Amino acid sequence: MTRSFLSILLRSASTLVAVLILTFFMTRLAYRNPAAMLAPRNATQETIESIARSLRLDEPWYWQLWYYLYRGPDIQGAPMGIMHWPPALGYSFRKQAPVTDLILAKAPVTLSLALGALVIWMTVAIAGGVIAARWQGKWLDHLIAVLAYIGLSVPTFLSGILISWFFFFQLSGYGIRWFPSSGYVPLAENPAEWARHLALPWLTLALAEIGIFQRVVRASMLDVLGQDYIRTARAKGVSEGRVYFNHALKAAFTPILTLGGLELAVIMGGAIVTETIFGLDGIGRMAITAALDGDFPVVIGTTIFSAAAFVFCTMTVDTLAEWLDPRERR
Amino acid sequence: MSDVLTLPAAPGGGAPSMPRLLLRALARERAVRYGGLIVAFVVIAALCAPLAAWLLGHGPNEQFRDLTLDDMGLPIGPSLAFPLGADGNGRDVLVRTLYGARVSLLVGIPATTIAMILGTAIGLVSGYLAGRTDRIVSQVVDIAMSFPFVVTALSLLSLNRGGTGEPVIAPLMVVILVIALFSWTFFARLARGMVLSLRHSPMVEASRTIGASHPRIVLVDILPNILPVVIVYWAVQLPANIIAEATLSFLGVGIQAPDASWGNMIADAQRSSLYQDQPWFLFGPGAALFLTVAGFNTLSAGLRNVLDPHHAGASR
Fold this sequence. Notes:
The complex is a heterodimer.
Chain A: H1 2-30, H2 34-38, H3 45-54, H4 61-71, E1 74-75, E2 78-79, E3 91-92, E4 97-98, H5 99-134, H6 139-153, H7 156-173, H8 191-225, H9 228-236, H10 240-251, H11 253-268, H12 272-277, H13 283-293, H14 296-324
Antiparallel strand pairs in A: 1-2, 3-4
Chain B: H1 2-6, H2 18-28, H3 30-47, H4 49-56, H5 65-68, H6 93-129, H7 131-146, H8 149-159, H9 171-198, H10 202-209, H11 214-250, H12 262-271, H13 280-307
Helix pairs in contact in B: 3-6, 3-13, 4-6, 6-7, 6-9, 6-11, 6-13, 7-9, 8-9, 9-11, 10-11, 11-12, 11-13, 12-13
């Protein structure tokens, strides 16, 4: 148990280091003359050169890589490197702020979005999957299958537009203003407003995932329900509710967990489309504006953030799956 | 060898051939029939795009502002000349939707195929050699999977700028390569898993006993066994890649205006907010995208039922 956890940890760490180095090369190749891109607009040649010097962009690439990893540029006397303590993800001259601060400021939005959607999609998908497995081949199963199919086949950007069109424009046409079309209210400020502002984005994100997960839940439920120990449980007179929720769902949970971790990881890296449509100022939106703008410290920072989120989620899921599986417990 | 195989097929009777059995099994599967029908319709629509443009007399990027925009500059609704209406620039939505189908297929099919070939090759090697090679490959797959799709795609697209800012290779090619780069891992993991379980099968052991070389075992014994499943998952991945292209284009980093792609048409409709009171604007590309993705999803589900019987209907 401890050993396999250590090997998972080691693997995750080496993945992150590789992402760091690859991102460095990718951005250096993609954004030529980085000093000019980092400088404020209309900067003079001298300003650009002094930025290049202070970021050590005029040195050979291996020194650049070293500074980038270890110490980073000194901004107001504080080093901005990743391996330095406290770790920092560099400095954005465009936004005049450390990238770490920028990311931490946007993280609550993305986190609220991802976790809220996760709760909705897991609840609906598990309910839908269990119902479909219970009444397999009946009309309810077919109906749910069709709905899951539709959810699965509509890309997020299309369902997002349709949802905001219906729940915002159409309803407000009738004077019903339940949902705002954009914006974000911090949870600590006003929980009700927080949920009201996030309801439509949650629905958008959850819709596609429900389509995927309902089918996984149904399939793994059916898989488990066909096994001998379920028959034994029924023969013993265990109630159907207990058979479904205590016996079957528990065993069927591992594939759901693995896939869920993967999907959550992708969303944590920035649900760019959902954030764009609903005007949420999260990590994804920041990443794409930075990439279009050539603000590469932010691009590197957000890439590393999403890679870290990905690695963290898969790591957690791997560990949980191992811990949940009694065969692995020793 | 081939004589032996063809001998039992006596004229008029005998056992039906493998391909015929396969076709028959496929035709019995309802999802294959319906999915195939939708996919065929989409492909024909894509092929007919120039024909429709010629019949209607509207090119995909031609603007008919005086014909289709009213005094306020808002497009008028669907009419006989413009069956799906016109967009904010006075372009024919139907013709553009049909041209968008071409882009979708021209990006989705090659991207998925490249990813399949690359991923399967890597998965074969990794699963067959196992041990250290396998660990290294799994690590590379982990790394590739942890990159965020859109932002990385954008960085890679800006790599394509030459000294003067002109693209070095066609942007369409870059989109294909970027999508392939993000989907090969799917095939690598799939192929690796199957090869690992075949590695010690009696069939492979037998080949090894008679002294077959490693390439021969991989290509002649293992590959034909995993190929049907790999091809099924090609069809599973294709709609996801079609969505990926549309998403990139929607965000303005894929197919660039004025070329029509469903993604950038939907983005146009959203940006101009015209869809709020003129939903047909969204209808053309939206319905086309949904139909295509649903068609391929149905087809692949059916193919999986026939060719990958171990898989009992789960999505992945």
